[in-house]
Design brief:
alpha/beta; single chain
């Protein structure tokens, strides 16, 4: 396995251009949480010319609905959510400057096209590892939509958050490559 690449948020084109599908990464800095309901609200704001609760430029959104924090912890289990549920909204967010998303599972063609067109990347995080991933989250702050509970938008400060580049700007797709290898056997 390759040595992980340490990257710092916010991301820019220079960083994104170096990443290839299959690269293990350790993400450091600020990322935001958002799931289905929050994505719909962000999308609706964009469609209606509203102002978003945070600037998307260079940011990474983690598809997660964390569990409540235990006493002394900053967050509860924080495992990734299935990404395709955000596919209807992701291209519009990417066009507005979103540079990365973290989730689990493959993405649709419209998202993959938007990644290439706007130089963004999709990272896969390991499902079922929510308790371990939460140890990489150092700070949590509510940003918007507190009424959504676990689906609210939060700002997370992460340190060596482990992920793998699943889709890159060159059309590389870790999931497709895996299927091709499996079919050849």
């Amino acid at each position: 396995m390759k040595e992980p690449i340490s990257i710092q948020t916010p991301l820019d084109d220079r960083i994104v251009e170096t990443l290839r599908a299959g690269d293990p990464v350790l993400i450091n800095g600020t990322i935001y949480t958002a799931r289905d309901a929050a994505h719909k609200r962000l999308f609706d704001l964009l469609q209606n010319g509203g102002e978003l609760p945070f600037d998307l430029a260079g940011q990474v959104i983690y598809y997660v609905g964390p569990t409540p924090a235990k006493p002394g912890a900053v967050i509860g289990a924080a495992g990734p959510t299935t990404a395709y549920r955000m596919d209807a909204y992701a291209p519009a967010l990417i066009a507005k400057g979103l540079k990365g998303m973290i989730g689990k599972g493959s993405r649709g063609a419209d998202v993959v096209d938007a990644l290439k067109r706007h130089k963004a990347v999709y990272f896969a995080a390991t499902g079922g590892a929510g308790a371990l991933i939460s140890k990489r989250i150092k700070e949590v702050e509510m940003v918007a939509y507190e009424d959504l509970g676990t689906e609210a938008i939060r700002r997370l400060v992460v340190e060596d958050f482990p992920a793998i580049v699943a889709n890159d700007i060159y059309g590389g797709d870790l999931y497709e490559e895996g299927l091709k290898k499996y079919r050849r056997q």
